[in-house]
Write a structure and sequence with these properties.
Blueprint lengths: L8 H6 L1 H4 L4 H9 L1 H8 L15 E14 L6 E11 L5 E7 L4 H15 L5 E4 L8 H4 L12 H5 L2 E4 L10 H11 L24 H6 L8 H15 L3 E2 L2 E5 H6 L8 H7 L2 E6 L4 E4 L2 E4 L9 E7 L2 E8 L5 E6 L13 H21 L1
Parallel strand pairs: 1-4, 4-5
Antiparallel strand pairs: 1-2, 2-3, 6-7, 8-11, 9-10, 11-12, 12-13
Helix pairs in contact: 3-4
Length: about 375
Amino acid sequence: KQGKEIKSLATYRRYSNQIKKFDYDTYVFSREGNKAYNDKAGFYIHRDVSDLEVGTCLVADGNQLDFMVINPFTGRQCRASLIVFLDWYSCDIAGYEIMVSENTQCIASALRNSILRLGKIPKHVYIDNGRAFRGKFFTGTNDFNTENFPGIYNNLGIKTIIAQAYNGRAKRVERFFRDFVQSCPPITGSYIGNCINAKPAHLKRNETYHKELHKNDTTPTINQAKQIIEAWLGFYRDKICPNFKQLKIGEVFNSGIGSGVNEELLDELMMKSEKRTVKRNIIKIFGLEYSSAALYGFNTEVIVKYSLFDLSKIKAFTTKGDFIGEIPIITQVKAIARDGNALDMYNYKMHLKAQEEFKKLTV
């Protein structure tokens, strides 16, 4: 009313006698925005987990690690992503995976590890709103004219719950990441922090003493990073469960483990499916070529199913769903077979024989 700008909470309180009532919610919203209001002042929902059990719902999310690892493809340092599936009932990590980037293969591997450790198929998966978690590979599509097979969650009989965007407080896994970030990455030699305030001293300018102390630090590989995380999870599972104050997190999870799942059947259900066109008896996926006698004569679209855990072979179906056959990856023939061993010469002769047989069949 007096044409003065209110710049601080103290100033706001001095003028509060003229406004009749001091409204903290309004102050936070007007000065810091909608997200600050949701995090600091807004109402939040209390959820009762007493009607759940171990494996009823897994909460999935990913986070970049705050320490460097060795990229297995380039041999250089990089920040990998940690994908976890947290059991809501016990607050334990059912399974996880570390990969250079948060992609479909990483999430599928984390889900597979979770199911194997859980010993049963979860009923629900509370997934992040990100593109990788909501891709066709997992959720499928309702248009069965373009895709004859549903996503992984439908194949496994898992119902999905998609979190609201920018609403991290709704996912219990965010609290796990908070504890993880504060205690696990700082003990590694390649720790770099997640912000400028958390940056270690030896990475700053003119810190010669600290640089000398850390000159022999090594960067872990992916497998070594998993060993570090497994050791930390042993400590985490000894903590008191937030939902059951008398029991530890690991004890609650172990009390609800299932009898086990068929690993081969699980891999079968987790196969990805998509359309591919057969050209000269060859199907191309990820730059790899697959060929078989079963594809001879096809020059149209087929449905291909493949496992991200084993790309040595794929399965081909017609667009009507009829099984064509299992198609192996093409084995290349040595350029000059006579300079190789007996196996190279044998492979060369078998390829020549196949060419002649298919030509006779066509005639």
